[in-house]
Amino acid sequence: LALIDLAVLAAKLQNGAERQILLGLLSEREKALFATYTYSKRQGEWLGGRLACKYATLSLHGRVSAPEAAGFAAISILPAKTGRPELIHHGGHGPGPCISISHSSGYAVAMAARAPQCGIDIQKISKKIIQVQSRFAAAGELDCLRRGAQGLGETERLTLLWSAKEALKKALLHDQPAVFHGLSLHSLHRDHFFSLRLNYPGGGAQPARITAAQLDHFMLAFYPGQEHHA
Asked: What digits encode the pLDDT tens for the residues 109-124?
């Protein structure tokens, strides 16, 4: 996993020398795509997500011992036909890992996993989520949240559930337009992190396990698939 503070990144993009260093971490195709974004906010979100994803990918292979522009530039994170980010390694090292990117209110996060599917999501905790809880949280799920996430307020619990469902949807149900259709909370327990098990279409009797944590005013959730992640 990798996380980038977009405010720090935005400040560096305003500095000519630092901007060139950051853009040097992109492939030529990525530089061309970056140039099409005219709004600084969109530039920062896009660049932050790609740099976080490249760092996570190189970390997965144990290759981030020092800032290496060549290693970063050898990886392209480009939109596939579906719009999802797709990793292309220009060094010809075979299929790359599964990747996922998310951003919310000043932060970008990404993950890379040695698994067929993965998904990550970060959400800022906001009371606005209470207004839409009927769209994604059933009564039984609310009871499960109250029992398994004691100490969290209603807003935090709902954001935890939303982020977990979003991470799983990105991994396994990205081709379904409906919001979280068929996803339901099976169980929840808390150790160092939250562990949520979600039922999903096609999962049968084996719910998917989502790991989540609260980071200050944000909830972060990720589904690493069945193998190791970075």
From this structure: 999 999 989 999 999 9
Contacts of 41 (CB under 8 A, 6+ apart): none
Range of the domain at 149: 121-223
Write the CATH number for 213: 3.90.470.20
Contact status, residue 121 vs residue 102, Cβ threshold 8 Å: yes
The answer for residues whose C-beta is within 8 angstroms of residue 77's C-beta and 6 or more apart is 30, 49, 50, 53, 54, 85, 86, 87, 88, 99, 101
> Which residues have CB under 8 Å from 102's CB, separation 6+?
49, 108, 109, 110, 120, 121, 122, 166, 170
Over the Cα atoms of the chain, what is R_g? 18
Tokens coding 167: 């991470």
pLDDT tens digits for range 146-199:
999 999 999 999 999 999 999 999 999 877 766 788 899 999 999 889 999 999
For CA atoms 201, 203, 205, 210, give the dihedral sign: negative
What's at 186, amino acid-wise? H
